[in-house]
Amino acid sequence: MNTASRTIGDTGVTLAPLVLGGNVFGWTADRATSFALLDRALDAGLTTLDTADVYSRWVPGHQGGESETVIGQWLAARGSAARDRVQVMTKVGMDMGAAGQGLSSVHIQRAVEASLERLRTDRIDVYFSHVFDEAVPQAETLAAYDRLIRAGKVRAIGASNFAAGQLRAALDVATAQDLPRYQVLQPHYNLIDRAGFDGPLRDLAQAEGLAVVTYFSLASGFLTGKYRSESDLAGSTRGDWARGYLNPRGFTILAALDAVAARHGAQPGEVALAWLMARPGVSAPIASATRLEQLEGLIRATRLHLSDEDIRTLEQASAPTPTEHRIAMISSTTITTAEPARIILRLCKHWGHRYTVDYDETRGRIELPLGLCLLTAGEGTLDFRLEGTPDADMDKFEQVVADHAQRMARGETYTWQWTRQAG
Ligand SMILES: NC(=O)c1ccc[n+]([C@@H]2O[C@H](COP(=O)([O-])OP(=O)(O)OC[C@H]3O[C@@H](n4cnc5c(N)ncnc54)[C@H](OP(=O)(O)O)[C@@H]3O)[C@@H](O)[C@H]2O)c1
Fold first, then answer.
1. At the topology level of CATH, where does 6-318 sit?
2. Structural domain boundaries of the chain?
3. SS3 81
4. Is the beta carbon of 23 within 6 A of some atom in ligand 1?
5. How far does residue 218's CA lie from ligand 1's centre (Å)?
6. Nearest CA residue ID for atom 4, ligand 1
7. Phi, psi of 224 (to 5 degrees)
8. Is 160 in the pocket of ligand 1 (CB under 6 A)?
9. Measuring from atom 40 of ligand 1, which residue has the nearest CA?
10. Which of 70, 107, 167, 360 makes a 20 to 30 Å CA pair with 332?
11. Alpha-carbon distance 384 to 375, whole Å?
């Protein structure tokens, strides 16, 4: 049984059973639709909203801040009673262009004021480090958050896209220097993308009592069952992100979702969310909706209780296969790199059937283009964390990764790219 708490320590912040994803506001949901979605969510008790300063900067013509702005307009329109009922989670750290990026004290101080202004509020309920920043000592980041908490501008802090080692180090620094602890974790996790959380990260979050809110809970819509062939992707904003799931493992998982959904008279996406809510260590999934009908599905999901047999069906379809265990063995490889180690490795599985791993030594920031799987490195070490669909080419992939590890161990600097075109 899932016993993860939705109450964040003694902060007084309690999360809703499902967190409403905010990247759609001002992007795939216009202002009027966003207001309608937010009204209905509040009415149904989905009072926790997740956004980020950077949403939706990836859209041509957008600067970032579009989502926070819409949420702020809605909060202002609905008044302080609505604000008091809502928990606002936002994030700092991604590249905001001229407005900066990263987790330095200076950037956090500037970014929080900009977020508060856009959100038209005096406090953020959970403020996330959007992605680990290897260029800034964790003590500096936590000290910046400490000042914000003391000033009443932030109630709790969270970490998103952190590897287990990075989170462990942050918690240790907090204890050693009497700084605030990350109390919420936001990993990429859903029925089909499990490697990023199942394992050391989940164990750590559970042992340390962190609340966990999962993002991409519907795998960009794939787990709703609406993308079952290439032709279903046409015309969809998120179609490209879901393309990589159109493979045997994806179809096996959809079949399991269909079977469980039929038992409950529910939709596949509702089952995928209910599975997350039942997962050990998960406090609440984050999911977005762009239409009211979709939001009703999210609401229904919070009332759906899966039986042991349902869980078994879903586990059988989605549990790591023997090949994935082999990949997991790679993921435990740790090698020492030349200092300073700034490593970004990404395994992209959403551009058609093409896998791309690229390595960028110079940028010093982990960017997470939406829909990409993240491989990341800790300070001075390189941890491979791979997610992928088992296939024959994985042997070759392992070889490439091993070769890369050796070159890194020798301290070589180079650009490396490998692509695979599925048959
Ligand atoms: N921390 C991070 O780095 C990070 C990264 C990404 C996202 N997030 C957070 O997680 C949230 C959720 O991620 P996401 O919105 O990108 O992905 P998601 O929750 O996996 O997918 C949501 C999308 O699926 C579709 N959908 C929802 N209900 C549906 C239904 N009943 N039937 C058919 N389609 C349905 C909608 O897209 P259509 O418009 O295509 O129908 C919706 O926008 C974001 O809003 C954001 O707050 C965090």
1. TIM Barrel (3.20.20)
2. 6-318, 332-420
3. helix
4. yes
5. 6
6. 215
7. -80, -10
8. yes
9. 238
10. 360
11. 6
Residue whose Cα lies nearest atom 1 of ligand 1: it is 160
pLDDT above 90 for 52: yes
Lateral strand order in the sheet of 344-351: 373-376, 344-351, 354-359, 417-421
Question: Do the bridges between strand 284-287 and strand 211-214 make them parallel or antiparallel, or are there none, so unpaired?
Answer: parallel
Cα 125 to Cα 260: distance, rounded to the nearest angstrom? 36
State whether the beta carbon of 161 lies less than 6 angstroms from ligand 1: yes
The three-state secondary structure class of 37 is: helix
Q: Are 96 and 131 in contact (CB under 8 A)?
A: no
Residue nearest to ligand 1 atom 34, measured at CA:
221
Distances (CA, A) of 352 to 211, 235, 246: 34, 15, 9
Which helix (H) or strand (E) segment is 391 a member of?
Answer: none
CA of 216 to the centre of ligand 1 (A): 6
Instruction: Phi first, then psi: give them for residue 116, nearest 5 degrees.
Output: -60, -40
With H, G, I as helix, E, B as strand and everything else as coil, classify residue 118.
Answer: helix
Which position has the higher pLDDT, 30 or 234?
A: 30
Q: Determine if ligand 1 sits within 6 Å of the CB of residue 185.
A: no
Q: Please tell me if the CB atom of residue 225 comes closer than 6 angstroms to any atom of ligand 1.
A: no
Which residues, including other chains, have CB under 8 Å from residue 77's CB and lie 6 or more apart? 35
Cβ distance 87 to 47 under 8 Å? yes
Query: In the structure, how many helices (H) and strands (E) does the chain have?
Result: 14, 16
The pLDDT assigned to 1 comes to 55
238-270 pLDDT, tens per residue? Answer: 776 777 788 888 999 999 999 999 999 999 999
Q: What is the pLDDT of residues 69-95, one digit of tens each?
A: 999 999 999 999 999 999 999 999 998
For ligand 1, atom 36, which residue shows the shortest CA distance? 289
Ligand 1 atom 13, closest CA: 216
Tell me the per-residue pLDDT of 307-349, one tens digit each, with 9 for 90 and over: 999 999 999 999 765 433 323 223 333 333 333 333 334 333 3
pLDDT band with cut points at 50, 70 and 90 for residue 3: low
Helix then strand then coil, in percent of the chain rounded to 5, is 40, 20, 40
